Amino acid sequence: MERIYTAVVTAKGGRDGHVNSEDGIIDMDLRAPKAMGGEDGYPNPELLFASAWGSCYLSALGSVGVRDGINVTQATVDVHIHFNKESEASYALSAELHVHIPGVDWDVAQKMADAAHKGCPYSKATRGNIDVKVVAD
């Protein structure tokens, strides 16, 4: 495997902390969401993860579109990252990717969505680790 790029981010303070990237592009406070005892108005790890996964996933979908000769430039994906309680001291993530490809029949869109999930690096990183549902809308 050939390494192409490395992102470096330093996190301090956990969910009520701060993250900043080595290049200075990211420099923000984080807070737990209100549903988890925090406060609204701040990013949280799940929002950042959903943003990163969604962006990466759409790039993978673009590759599938090129392969299949289907324009997916107007496609969107809504990434739902669920923070789940397994027990008193154990938590786990699960995810749903809701994919919309305008002008494409549902069965074709679902096949494309599944193919993009197979090739997306974030999807590969989570495969077998968390429950993921991919749905063409």
Give structural notes.
- The protein is an alpha+beta fold and 137 residues long.
- The chain folds into two domains: 1-43, N-terminal domain of TfIIb, CATH 2.20.25.10; 45-136, 2-Layer Sandwich (GMP Synthetase, Chain A, domain 3), CATH 3.30.300.20.
- It has three helices and six strands, in the order E-E-E-H-E-E-H-H-E.
- It has a three-stranded antiparallel sheet, with no helix packed on it. It has a three-stranded mixed sheet with strand order 4-5-6.
What is the 3D form? globular
CATH architecture of the largest domain: 2-Layer Sandwich
End-to-end separation in angstroms reads 34 Å
Biggest β-sheet: strands ordered side by side in the sheet: 1-2-3
CATH top level of the largest domain is Alpha Beta
Number of domains: 2
